[in-house]
Amino acid sequence: MGLPLAIDQGWSKIYRVTETGYVGLVDETRGSHRAHPVKPVQLCIRVRDVDAWYGYIAEQGVAALKEPRSHQELKIRAFVFDDPEGYQIEMQSALD
Predict the structure, then answer these.
(1) Measured distance CA(56)–CA(58) in Å, rounded
(2) Model's pTM, two decimal places?
(3) What is the H or E stretch that residue 24 is in?
(4) Residue range 16-22: mean pLDDT, rounded
(5) In angstroms, rounded to a whole number, what is the distance separating the alpha carbons of residues 25 and 89?
(6) I need a surface site. Which of 16, 18, 39, 96 has the fewest CB within 10 A?
């Protein structure tokens, strides 16, 4: 996704998502949790232009990419895809 690396601790890498938001990725052999084939976690990232992000992500050839959809009840437009480890990422924007 091109997020800038904020802190590199070797087996733990922390990336800046927004001015004050970060996401950390940890080597499962050193962190608190172990990898598991079932990935019941979704990381949701709120962006200004979900369609622009969809274009960028589509160019990366990611797995399980779904077309953006508008959800009137939730007042969002969003799409999902899987990261290299099988976790689902949702990118969403507010509907005006």
Answers:
(1) 5
(2) 0.80
(3) strand 22-26
(4) 89
(5) 14
(6) 96
In the chain, helix, strand, coil percent, each to 5? Answer: 10, 40, 50
What residues pair up with 88 in beta bridges, in sequence order?
A: 42, 82
The verdict on 54 and 78 lying in the same domain is yes
Question: Are residues 53 and 87 part of one domain?
Answer: yes
Kindly state the tokens that stand for 72: 């009137």
Give the CA-trace dihedral at 7, 27, 62, 23, to 10 degrees: -40
Residues 6+ apart with CB under 8 A from 96: none
Instruction: Let me know whether 27 and 58 are in one domain.
Output: no
Share of the chain above pLDDT 90, in %: 67
Specify the number of domains making up the chain: 2
The domain of 6 spans: 1-33
Between 41 and 95, name the one with better pLDDT. Answer: 95
- 3-state SS assignment for residue 58: helix
